[in-house]
UniProtKB/TrEMBL annotation:
Name this protein carries in UniProt: Molybdopterin cofactor-binding domain-containing protein
Domain Aldehyde oxidase/xanthine dehydrogenase a/b hammerhead intervals: 221-299
Pfam entry (one): MoCoBD_1
InterPro entries: Ald_Oxase/Xan_DH_a/b (IPR000674), Ald_Oxase/Xan_DH_a/b_sf (IPR036856), AldOxase/xan_DH_MoCoBD1 (IPR008274), AldOxase/xan_DH_MoCoBD2 (IPR046867), AldOxase/xan_DH_Mopterin-bd_sf (IPR037165), N-heterocyclic_Hydroxylase (IPR052516), OxRdtase_Mopterin-bd_su_IorB (IPR012368), TAT_signal (IPR006311)
Length: 739
């Protein structure tokens, strides 16, 4: 299911365009987070400033405040989205301040995400792109209409320069601040359509390499406010002891020793655990460790052992008698494969992985009567309002969410469990804010992991080695069944996030994708690139295997399969040149992989070496060519590719969560292995945009090709040893070498 809205002309109504002073003041009053551009505390917007719409406020001194509707978790989105408004508004970027949107889905919801406020899925730029450009254009037309009256000239004689309306024939001009000082919102509003948008040749900011990210200065000077930094008068601290197995509950609580800890004020029984409230973080941690809880033993997750289940999933994928939900069907793949000269049939497996964000889960809440206020590093303000209201016994409109900077998200902070903790505990001390900070052990053990999954790929080849049919079966639990049940049900039991990326643009006559959901009880969630992170692993490795069987060069074979896909061919040809694909390297191998996920075309080549005695893989360098369609911020795109490649290398080589009888075995970074700085590859990125194409998603586009490029490099280096199980631990690599 494509959640990306099509770009179209749109008229914005006065009702949807206006915003109340109080609504905007919510965001601006939050302090340094609100003024991302300067990193300094700000006051609420003063009455009398010109608010032409819900997105833009213009002060008499010419300062322009632009709302950032998506949340900043290091991906640079609070620069990218306001920049779209500023471009069409013809604003002087040096006079722009960025303001985090308040929790108001009706006004600031993402059109690409069912109209809710949720940041993730590489949907922010794609979802808001047309809306924000039209908003900027309409604001510019509005300023020109007001200026025409002030100058007593026809509006058709006016043009704009950065933050200025100009009447060329008379030489007169008005600064946006001068207009704002006297302006009222015209009624009716000037209407903006696609025809009013700037042509590419007049862009000042889109595509520029000179625009710095607005969130960086405050992060450098220390004034940035992350969720964990929130400090409020009278604030208490909270910690929650959760059961070792998901979905158990406390049957008996012995809190005598916990209550003796100095500074502890409350012990709060919860439906899913036990909360501690105290005057210091240290007191709550100590008291939590002293709790003696007898847990129930009824959770079906107690039967969950990931290693055993993965074997079951693989068997299910192989059993053609077990049918799932059709995710895609183009031609009769089964018949084509049945008549093929050669059949390649393989399994690809992926373990659970944790998010392990730099900033652990945390939230601060205050409950006063039926009102709730939350300060949190959340990816989903709309969901936060709903869950908090349910806990507090109120309605979502009475829940105010102050979204802070996020110290990493990767989908984890789209969940609300850590926020629910804070609301439950704040109810126990009504009127006082309570900040809950998860320990790293809690963060790892009680994460919402990427799904455990097995993929069975069966491909039929004709006598010349050409693909005639491709069947792809994906066995995994559903994320949407838990997080968005209506979406899951409307799709007939298909989860397009879990299977995302399985539909490719290679020229294959018959292509079938099937999803076989396994409901085993463990809550799984969104993780960096989600389904694409493993579906492209299987696809790109199988394509390489077919090329080897055919005796074809992997790059040339992909180019043939993509002969009608110029953007795809371009990134593959570009990255092959960057890596000097044809040049031999002693002791090292090159592997290539490609992805068109999230609307962006990305090709990568990885250079690796292998210690055959230990099974350790070393990734020396990764080259990357990325075509995002419109490259709004090229430098930012390069940085995001580096992020995706670094994370992609770590998750392919190291990251692994094991669950035994419902209990997570890993607990901190001594047992959950992340990539280290010394292990990160050198990375070279080329941004090769096609501006006439729709804008693509960037946040997660860099990760999917990395793992298969590494696996394919190992195969070329070893004469065909295939790695088919994420992660490529040394033990698994040695076993593959010895097989």
């Amino acid at each position: 299911m494509d959640r990306t809205p099509q770009f179209q002309s749109r008229a914005l109504s006065r009702r949807s365009f206006l915003v109340t002073a109080g609504g905007l003041g919510i965001a601006v009053a939050f302090g340094s987070q609100a003024d991302l551009a300067r990193g300094a505390a700000t006051a609420p917007v003063a009455l009398g400033e010109f608010r032409p719409n819900a997105w833009v406020t213009i002060a008499a001194d010419g300062t322009i405040s632009i709302i950032a509707p998506a949340v900043e978790m290091g991906q640079g989105i609070t620069t990218t989205l306001p920049l779209l408004v500023a471009e069409e508004l013809d604003a002087d970027w040096s006079r722009v301040r960025v303001v985090q949107a308040p929790s108001d889905a009706e006004t600031y919801g993402n059109p690409g995400f069912y109209g809710i406020q949720l940041t993730g899925g590489s949907e922010s730029t794609r979802g808001y792109h047309s809306l924000l450009r039209l908003t900027g254009a309409q604001t510019r037309l509005m300023l020109m209409a007001v200026a025409a009256g002030m100058l007593s000239v026809p509006v058709r004689e006016l043009t704009t320069e950065p933050s200025k309306v100009v009447h060329q024939s008379s030489g007169e001009s008005l600064d946006y601040g001068e207009i704002a000082a006297k302006a009222v919102v015209p009624d009716p509003l000037p209407q903006a359509t696609e025809a009013d948008l700037k042509p590419r040749g007049r862009w000042r900011y889109i595509g520029s390499r000179a625009i710095p990210r607005v969130d960086v200065p405050s992060k450098v000077n220390g004034t940035a406010v992350f969720g964990i930094d929130v400090q409020l008068p009278g604030m208490l601290y909270g910690a929650v002891l959760r059961p070792p197995v998901q979905d158990e509950r406390p049957d008996a609580i012995d809190a005598d020793e916990a209550r003796k800890v100095p500074g502890v004020t409350h012990v709060v029984p919860l439906p899913y655990g036990v909360g501690i409230i105290g005057e210091t973080v240290e007191a709550t941690k100590r008291a939590k460790d002293l709790l003696n809880v007898t847990w129930s033993t009824t959770s079906r997750v107690r039967t969950y052992t990931s290693g055993r289940l993965l074997d079951e999933y693989r068997a299910i994928g192989r059993d053609s008698g077990k049918r799932g939900v059709s995710a895609h069907a183009d031609g009769d793949a089964e018949a084509a494969i049945a008549g093929a000269a050669t059949v390649i049939e393989v399994d690809y497996l992926s373990d659970h992985v944790a998010h392990a964000t730099m900033e652990p889960m945390n939230a601060t809440a205050r409950v006063t009567g039926d009102r709730v206020e939350i300060w949190a590093p959340t990816q989903g303000p709309t969901g936060t309002q709903g869950f908090a209201a349910e806990v507090a016994g109120t309605t979502p409109d009475k829940v105010k969410v102050n979204t802070t900077l996020l110290g990493g998200g990767f989908g984890r902070k789209a969940e609300a469990d850590f926020i629910i903790d804070a609301v439950w505990l704040a109810k126990a001390v009504e009127g006082r804010p309570v900040k809950v900070i998860w320990s790293r052990e809690d963060d790892v053990r009680h994460d919402k992991f990427r799904p455990l999954e097995a993929q069975h790929v069966k491909v039929g080849l004709d006598a010349e080695g050409n693909i005639v049919g491709w069947r792809h079966r994906i066995v995994a639990d559903s994320i949407f069944a838990r997080t968005l049940p209506p979406v899951f049900e409307q799709a007939g039991g298909h989860d397009d996030v879990v299977t995302e990326g399985a539909k490719f643009n290679y020229a294959v006559p018959a292509h079938q994708i099937e999803y076989l959901r396994q409901d085993r009880g463990l809550a799984i969630g969104f993780w960096f690139a989600v389904g694409v992170g493993y579906t492209r692993f299987a696809i790109e490795c199988v394509v390489d295997e077919i090329a080897a069987a055919k005796g074809a060069d992997p790059v040339a074979f992909r180019l043939e399969l993509l002969k009608d896909q110029p953007r795809a061919r371009h990134v593959i040809e570009t990255v092959a040149r960057m890596a000097e694909w044809e040049r031999a390297r002693e002791g090292r191998g090159l592997g290539v992989a490609y992805s068109d996920a999230f609307g962006s075309h990305c090709a990568q080549v990885a250079e690796v070496s292998l210690d055959r005695d230990t099974g350790a893989i070393r990734v020396h360098k990764v080259w990357c060519a990325i075509d995002p369609g419109v490259a709004i911020q090229p430098l930012h795109i390069e940085a995001m590719m580096m992020t995706g490649i670094t994370n992609g290398t770590g998750h392919a080589l190291f990251e692994q969560i094991n669950v035994v009888d419902g209990e997570v075995q890993e607990s901190n970074f001594d047992t959950y292995r992340l990539i280290r700085m010394s292990e990160a590859p050198e990375i070279e990125v080329a941004v090769v945009p096609t501006p006439e194409s729709p804008v693509g998603g960037i946040g997660q586009a860099g990760l999917p090709p990395t793992g298969p490029a590494i696996a394919n490099a190992v195969a070329r280096l070893t004469g065909g040893v295939r790695l088919r199980h994420y992660p490529f631990t040394a033990e698994r690599v040695k076993a593959a070498l010895e097989a």
